[in-house]
Amino acid sequence: MQDSKNAKTKSANGLRTLLIDQLKDIYWAEQALTKALPKMIKHASDEKLVKALTKHLGETEGQVVRLEAVFSSIGEKPEAKKCEAMSGLIKEAEEIMNSTEAGVVRDAGIILAGQKVEHYEIATYGTLCAFAQTLGEKKACALLQETLDQEKAADATLSAIAESSINAEAVMVD
Ligand code: FE
Ligand code: FE
Ligand code: ZN
Ligand code: FE
After folding, report:
1. Cα–Cα dist 89/21, whole Å
2. Fold exhibited by the domain 2-173
């Protein structure tokens, strides 16, 4: 009886450590995105794409602040730890922008790169919200859910823009 209780406490501590570690990772990633998104906006041509990315830049700045609230809700200090995955995704976005001509094809590439970022964030926030829920951290979970909803909406908007015009126009370009 005592052993199984100890095992349970031990795995809860392990999950809590993993939650904190991954919060540091996504905190770094969101901060990196506040610097990467302006470059993507500058390179985008389509008006709807510029608008969507600009809106999401504002949301991303809010997500950095929201993560600080998540840290404090679980009694931790905000700390960033380099996310190698986001660093790589941002590098790929830069490669795409450098290897395409400005216009619909580059726009299609920016959407591709942007959606890879959103999917990484959706996977992260979905999981971290579940971890927080399991650990009884209701406030943290609610905050993470708010960001998750923004990431899902951003992803859906990018899909809609790609489907509405950019991909069809990009195929007409030599
Ligand atoms: Fe984000
Ligand atoms: Fe990461
Ligand atoms: Zn450039
Ligand atoms: Fe996002």
Report:
1. 20
2. Ferritin (1.20.1260)
